[in-house]
Amino acid sequence: METSTDRTVEQDGTTRGTAPGFTRRALLGTAGAALVAGAGAGAAAALTADRHGPNHPPVPAGDGLGPARVGFHGEHQGGILEPQQARVQLAAFDLAGGVGRDGLRALLRRWSRTAARMAVGEPADEFDNQVALDAGPCSLTVTFGFGAGLFDKAGLADRRPAGLEPLPAFPADALDPARGDGDLFVQIGADDALVAVHALRVLQRQAAGTAALRWQMSGFARTPGATARPMTGRNLMGQIDGTNNPQPAEEGFAAKVFVAAGGEQPAWLAGGSFLVFRRIRMLLDNWEALPVDRQERVIGRRKSDGAPLGAPADAGERTPVDLAAQGPDGALAVAADAHIRVAAPAANGGAAMLRRGFSYHDGLLADGSPDAGLLFLAFQADPRKGFTPVQRKLARGDGLSRFLRHEASGVYAVPPGAPQGGYVGQTLLD
User: Fold this and answer.
1) Whole-model pTM?
2) Is the pLDDT of residue 345 over 60?
3) What positions carry a catalytic annotation?
């Protein structure tokens, strides 16, 4: 089984890595595929224990979500394997002219130092505005990524990864360049909206003169503890979303998500990943006009429990999909253009991604329709073998595509995690 380094928090607030091996926290929480949830005080106890890791005692249940912490340092950056938080702030920055390699290094050192402090509930050492002063870290994670333009601006063109190339144009794309790409990408997750907003504001102020904000978006997911039992979250279409995410216990998981040493990609990116971001607006007025059985045929799953169509009444979302199953009329139970059939790894040469999407709702558009949908985030070892072939197939034959509009896009190289005393991007810049 592939391994990852767990993060724990010591009594003095410092962090350290434990022995390699996927933790129960990662197994339960990968990309929001199984949100840690429950009713009452027991849910808080389960949540904090899982996010702390096995070598740190859980916070008492009565303390709620606030004290839950994810240490900043480790083999991989936080915000990839950890349970999906309730809130996210996404942002991209463009480097100022003349910053160069030294300026970029100074910024990433400052950002890493600040993210490590906030991850354990300490105020930022500069530009803290006290917005989150009375809140705990609330499982805060800060994940950094590098866009293609950064390498030229910082004099590092010869170290740009092979997988960091523009995505091809897909049919029906309606991309706004002002809301995509960027030299530096930041994903900030937390179980409290103020904690996430505070972290972004601090990082933005620290970047002044070095990098300017290009775009920013806010998203949300189900709050841990909101459901009576652990279950995968739903998107704004009401569908359970994330059932078939790859799991750390699966053979070959790390090879799908993380860059391996000694391969095609540069050595500095080993242990890192690639992130594909897409802002996908859902045509909710059109979708909600469909009866539930039509919605189910578009997806290929029952809306009530996520079980695949054609499965027994007592089946659940984890029931394997039988793509050959037939209905009483002899037709395929899962239609030929159903989303789960077209997107299945088996139908895409085994291509897989670790999805960690959040919903967004930004009011109404000029025509009165909701400006709402999915902030799609997918970590993978190489977008050319993950996102791109899958999206090509979805764009051609997925019945769900009639109800979606891809409006912004970005691809980023996500460096490995920072060692204790180090900073994210150190393998590239030092």
Assistant:
1) 0.87
2) yes
3) 241
